[in-house]
């Protein structure tokens, strides 16, 4: 490979890494006003989602937040990114737990209801009670680890999936040290990593399922459908369904709750049939349920596969400005860990 080829490859990786973080934040912001609402409430309050919008009168969690505001999905991902950078590619479990505690306290001080999810909340409480970090996440099976895993996908290459899942475990075990929690985070993280590596959407989804199969052998076993098996089923189901019926299938058959075997599976199925990344995120924001997390995870994967180009410049400018984000330098520092 010539010097010019190497520079071009490095520029492409940076664009895709930056695109992943932008997609994460954009999906999160699109789903902010609709999170935890029913499809009917979303339709009544907002109509069709085509752009960033303010939280409406029936939005309890993000009440009063302005259009373009991010939530815990992006904030915790950026928290993890900084810990990775500071730790030279490793995440100290105690430091992560302390950072999560500090983050929630800062949110409470602002009067926000956008706090830790159920698995993370329980894990943090156990840490405060003196439970070792290695045991605190033994009940975490929801999508919290998957929603914030994108920085691992940027910092760790996908060529050795066992090693990749090791990195996911290190970043997830403190809150989601279960077969479902680790499998779901491995799936989303691996999909991002393949995208940053230059892969297309189908490459990313295929590798997501492979990583999930490895991840479901890690951590404490918990009952629940296999992320890999359900993901493959959901991709085939959605791929054989007319586009106009996708939201119904996602809501009523696959599921959109915080359960990882619903929301993570729904994300991978939705990504697998995406032809327009921005429209895909808008669709996710209308589904009902855990809309901000589904849209954020989908945005991270689609951004990794497509770079920054698919994201509307006006939406990007709004999210960056409103939340005072500087994502490209973070992407660059995470990539420095990847190439070591």
Automatic annotation (TrEMBL):
<dbReference type="InterPro" id="IPR005502">
    <property type="entry name" value="Ribosyl_crysJ1"/>
</dbReference>
<comment type="similarity">
    <text>Belongs to the ADP-ribosylglycohydrolase family.</text>
</comment>
<dbReference type="Pfam" id="PF03747">
    <property type="entry name" value="ADP_ribosyl_GH"/>
</dbReference>
<dbReference type="InterPro" id="IPR050792">
    <property type="entry name" value="ADP-ribosylglycohydrolase"/>
</dbReference>
<keyword id="KW-0378">Hydrolase</keyword>
<protein>
    <submittedName>
        <fullName>ADP-ribosylglycohydrolase family protein</fullName>
    </submittedName>
</protein>
<dbReference type="InterPro" id="IPR036705">
    <property type="entry name" value="Ribosyl_crysJ1_sf"/>
</dbReference>
């Amino acid at each position: 490979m010539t010097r010019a080829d190497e520079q071009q490859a490095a520029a492409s990786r940076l664009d895709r890494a930056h695109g992943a973080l932008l997609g994460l934040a954009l999906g999160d912001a699109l789903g902010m006003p609709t999170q935890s609402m029913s499809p009917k409430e979303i339709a009544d309050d907002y109509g069709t989602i085509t752009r960033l919008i303010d939280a409406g009168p029936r939005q309890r969690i993000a009440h009063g937040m302005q259009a373009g505001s991010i939530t815990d999905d992006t904030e915790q991902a950026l928290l993890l990114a900084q810990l990775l950078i500071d730790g030279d590619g490793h995440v100290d479990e105690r430091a992560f737990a302390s950072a999560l505690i500090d983050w929630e306290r800062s949110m409470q001080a602002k009067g926000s209801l956008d706090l830790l999810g159920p698995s993370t909340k329980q894990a943090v409480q156990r840490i405060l009670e003196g439970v070792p970090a290695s045991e605190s996440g033994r009940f975490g099976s929801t999508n919290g680890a998957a929603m914030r895993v994108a920085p691992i996908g940027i910092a760790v290459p996908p060529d050795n999936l066992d090693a990749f899942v090791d990195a996911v475990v290190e970043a997830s075990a403190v809150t989601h040290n279960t077969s479902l929690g680790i499998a779901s985070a491995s799936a989303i993280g691996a999909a991002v990593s393949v995208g940053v590596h230059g892969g297309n959407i189908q490459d990313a989804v295929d590798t997501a399922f492979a990583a999930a199969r490895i991840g479901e052998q890690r951590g404490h076993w918990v009952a629940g459908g296999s992320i890999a098996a359900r993901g493959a089923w959901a991709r085939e189901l959605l791929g054989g369904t007319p586009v106009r019926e996708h939201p119904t299938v996602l809501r009523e058959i696959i599921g959109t709750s915080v359960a990882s075997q619903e929301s993570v599976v729904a994300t991978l199925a939705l990504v697998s049939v995406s032809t327009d990344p921005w429209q895909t995120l808008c669709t996710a924001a209308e589904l009902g349920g855990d809309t901000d997390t589904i849209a954020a995870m989908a945005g991270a994967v689609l951004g990794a596969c497509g770079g920054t180009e698919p994201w509307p410049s006006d939406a990007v400018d709004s999210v960056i400005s409103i939340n005072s984000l500087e994502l490209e330098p973070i992407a660059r520092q995470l990539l420095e860990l990847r190439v070591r």
